[in-house]
Amino acid sequence: MQQSRAIARDSITAEFLGITKPSHSRYHSENSCGNPRADAQFCVEHGATCDMTFRLMTVKILNEILRYIDAILFTVFIAAVIARHDYSLRFFIGMAVATFGIALWGVARVQLGSSFAVTAQAKKLVTTGLYSRIRNPVYFFGGIGYLGLFIAWGNWLALVIFVLVFVSYQIPRAKKEQRVLEQAFGDEYRRYRAGTWF
Sign of torsion, CA 188 190 191 193? Predict the structure, then answer.
């Protein structure tokens, strides 16, 4: 029984990591619930495996939320700035900068494709499009987008705080990703890095 549960847990973990997708009948044959929608009685009988399934499902959902958190924050911030009805020259300059940054941030996210991850991971080395010249265009243009919105808002103290927080957070994050990619791709990444601006 313990061995079959261990096999089942491995199968569930593999599915959520995108390695394999075992069938519902296989889950049950290996004494696991294996499916978030399994009946309650089965989950009661095999609680340990079901707990793992629901934890993995929760992590997957949280990752999906984090994947789009920037888009949500951009939308909320834009709505808040526009709602102030402060249509001065500063507002239009800031919104122009924001539009430029957010547009290229979106392009960078699309070009990154399935290689996007919330944490530093070496899925695939993307070297085309914006990535052919900038190693971290999502961070760079996302920062420009936020910078433009803070200018449009006109709160200079908030702008200074944002710049300090953004730089102190994103630079170490970018360096960590660089180490991960260099370890995974070696000379290929070093050649790529040498051909980029920053």
Answer: positive
- DSSP 8-state symbol, 4: H
**Region 185-197: what's the mean pLDDT?**
92
In the chain, the amino acid numbered 85 is: H
The overall pTM is greater than 0.85: no
| Helix, strand, coil abundance in the chain, percent, nearest 5 | 75, 0, 25
Identity of the residue numbered 180: V
pLDDT the model gives residue 37: 46
Question: Pseudo-torsion of CA 14, 186, 139, 144, nearest 10°?
Answer: -160
- Distance of alpha carbon 121 from its chain centroid, rounded? 11
Residue 196's φ and ψ, nearest 5 degrees, are: -105, 160
pLDDT band with cut points at 50, 70 and 90 for residue 195: very high
Give residues with Cβ within 8 angstroms of 120, minimum separation 6. Answer: 173, 176, 177, 179, 180
